[in-house]
């Protein structure tokens, strides 16, 4: 679960919201609190978004970019990324320096883009953005930039190291394509 932001007001800013477990989302959506499904409380900003954040940091050499990530829940605030994601990134020579935080109303007003990993996050973030005055963020799926057309980046939390590698590969493809489009 990663975010990218630019430092200047003229440059676009990007926030990545990258978490959810699709299998549980339907049942838990009925118990949503403040526009986000409680499912986000299970995995908050420790798997996909820190991987995407680290990939963006590696790809971006321009200092105008501010890169960050956030969760839609409070469950993992203050936590480090999942150890399997850290191992995957280390294998690829990419440093992970992230502590989980929750997305804020200010993020919707500050970022030009909020990129998420699945349709549940997309719906929830769009619903949440409707509650924010002067929302300027364009909310979309990071997978919409995938040249291989894999729209959803699946949550690897209940999987194995191979699943984290798949997330890494998707994030590399999507982040490169996003950066090419935004230049």
From TrEMBL:
What this protein catalyses is: a phosphate monoester + H2O = an alcohol + phosphate; O-phospho-L-tyrosyl-[protein] + H2O = L-tyrosyl-[protein] + phosphate
Residue stretches making up the Phosphotyrosine protein phosphatase I domain: 43-181
| GO cellular component term, pick one | cytoplasm
Q: Could you give a GO molecular-function term held by this entry?
A: non-membrane spanning protein tyrosine phosphatase activity
Keywords associated with the record: Cytoplasm, Hydrolase, Protein phosphatase, Signal
Q: Which domain of life is it from?
A: Eukaryota
Chief subcellular location: cytoplasm
Q: Where in the cell is it found?
A: Cytoplasm
Q: Note the InterPro entries from the entry.
A: LMW_PTPase, Ptyr_pPase, Ptyr_pPase_sf, Tyr_Pase_low_mol_wt_mml, Tyr_phospatase_low_mol_wt
Signal peptide residues on this chain, from the entry's feature table: 1-29
Looking up CDD domains in the UniProt record yields:
LMWPTP
Catalytic residues per the record?
Answer: 48, 155
What biological function has been recorded for the protein in this entry?
A: Acts on tyrosine phosphorylated proteins, low-MW aryl phosphates and natural and synthetic acyl phosphates.
Q: Which family does it belong to?
A: Belongs to the low molecular weight phosphotyrosine protein phosphatase family.
The identity of this protein, by name, is: Low molecular weight phosphotyrosine protein phosphatase
The organism of origin for this protein: Strix occidentalis caurina
């Amino acid at each position: 679960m990663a975010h990218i932001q630019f430092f200047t007001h003229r440059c676009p800013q990007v926030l990545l919201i990258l978490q959810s477990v699709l299998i549980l989302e339907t049942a838990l959506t009925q118990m949503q609190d403040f526009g986000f499904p409680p499912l986000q409380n299970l995995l908050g900003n420790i798997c996909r978004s820190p991987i995407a954040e680290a990939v963006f940091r590696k790809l971006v050499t321009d200092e105008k970019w501010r890169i960050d990530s956030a969760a839609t829940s409070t469950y993992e605030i203050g936590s480090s990324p999942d150890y399997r994601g850290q191992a995957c990134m280390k294998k690829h020579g990419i440093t992970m320096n992230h502590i989980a935080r929750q997305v804020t109303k200010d993020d919707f007003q500050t970022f030009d883009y909020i990129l998420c990993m699945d349709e549940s996050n997309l719906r929830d973030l769009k619903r949440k953005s409707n509650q924010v005055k002067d929302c300027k963020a364009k909310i979309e799926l990071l997978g919409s930039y995938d040249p291989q057309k894999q729209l959803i980046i699946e949550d690897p939390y209940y999987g194995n190291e191979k699943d984290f590698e798949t997330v890494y590969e998707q994030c590399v493809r999507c982040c490169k394509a996003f950066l090419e489009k935004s230049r």
